[in-house]
Sequence to fold (120 residues):
Amino acid sequence: MDLTDHSSIERAVSEVTSRHGGLDVLVANAVRWPTDAAGPLAESDPVVWQTALRANLEGTAATVRAAWPLLAQSGHGRIVLISTGVTRQGRAGATAYAAAKASLEGLMAALKWEGRSQAS
Fold:
């Protein structure tokens, strides 16, 4: 599965669902590390930085989007998004990675409300 290719993500979710007859849990642990955007933010190429965000944030969001209806269909679906300590402690040259992974916390916080509204 390629985190930067949404059709690849959709195919992977479809294949897993076909093979196992449904989807109960999504563990989004994929990462693109080290990113090509490693280095100081002031020196990073904006296009390369954006690619790192697309893989590590948008790729995860696309995976959740593809899995969401299947998880809802199961009646007890769960989502686990894996982040990193780099979001709190930092790491030189990891600005794009840290920003993308920290965004997963906001994504998950919003998703819990979306899940509740669909359940009611």
